[in-house]
Design brief:
The protein is built from 13 helices and no strands. Helices cover 62% and strands 0% of the residues. It is elongated. The protein folds into 2 domains: 94 residues, Helix-hairpin-Helix base-excision DNA repair enzymes (C-terminal) (Endonuclease Iii, domain 2); 102 residues, Endonuclease III, domain 1.
Length: 213
């Protein structure tokens, strides 16, 4: 199967399984999405969704967030892990949004990536899901599946992102990256993987991956 046929198979299969998708992180606007994505680093969406209502009840905008201390933020977000760095990042970026951006989340990769605790992946999620700008945020699921499917060499997430953007049509990026994450969790996990259920890898997967099972 040619690479273009593999890509078409992935798109068609995911569209069939997940015709409608929502961002897995609960949020109501760009600011709450930014905070939720920041919190999700090395944590699960389910855990983040348990914690954000508690945090947002006290502060769901930068003006209220800076009224809290770093320690107060940390106490609330402790269950999601990495709370010292995340609480400091949330507090500091909220200050910067007020000082530099009138309290609004900027619609720019450059400005987003300048914010404390905001990396390229977080910026990509916010740009794609809050502002509809085509982006392809790569998490561990996408990185794993792009390798399993023989669509990227697995060298690093930056390479995986480049390959995904090169192979998939731009107008599908924002929906597709969520579809792949959902598929990875449900059908092609890192542990407890049953290839019989994983129709995409079973059909187009890298031979070395399939043979190693």
């Amino acid at each position: 199967m040619k690479k273009s046929e593999k890509v078409a198979f992935v798109i068609d299969t995911l569209e069939e399984i997940y015709p409608k998708v929502d961002v897995p992180l609960d949020h109501k606007d760009p600011y709450t999405l930014l905070i939720a994505v920041l919190l999700s680093a090395q944590s699960t969406d389910a855990r983040v969704n348990q914690i954000t209502p508690l945090l947002f009840a006290k502060a769901d905008n930068p003006y209220d967030m800076v009224k809290l201390s770093v320690e107060e933020i940390r106490e609330i977000i402790k269950p999601v892990g990495l709370s010292p760095a995340k609480s400091k990042g949330i507090y500091e970026l909220s200050h910067i949004l007020i000082e530099k951006h009138n309290g609004e989340v900027p619609q720019s990769f450059e400005y987003l990536e300048e914010l404390p605790a905001v990396g390229h992946k977080t910026a990509s999620v916010v740009m794609s899901q809050a502002f509809g700008v085509p982006a392809f945020p790569v998490d561990t699921h996408i990185h794993r599946l792009m390798y399993r499917w023989g669509l990227s060499n697995g060298k690093n997430v930056l390479q995986t992102e480049k390959d995904a953007k090169r192979l998939f049509p731009e107008e599908k990026w924002n929906k597709l990256h969520i579809q792949i994450i959902l598929y990875g969790r449900e059908y092609s996990p890192a542990r407890g993987w049953n290839i019989e259920k994983d129709i995409i890898t079973k059909t187009i997967g890298r031979k070395s991956v399939i043979n190693s099972i």
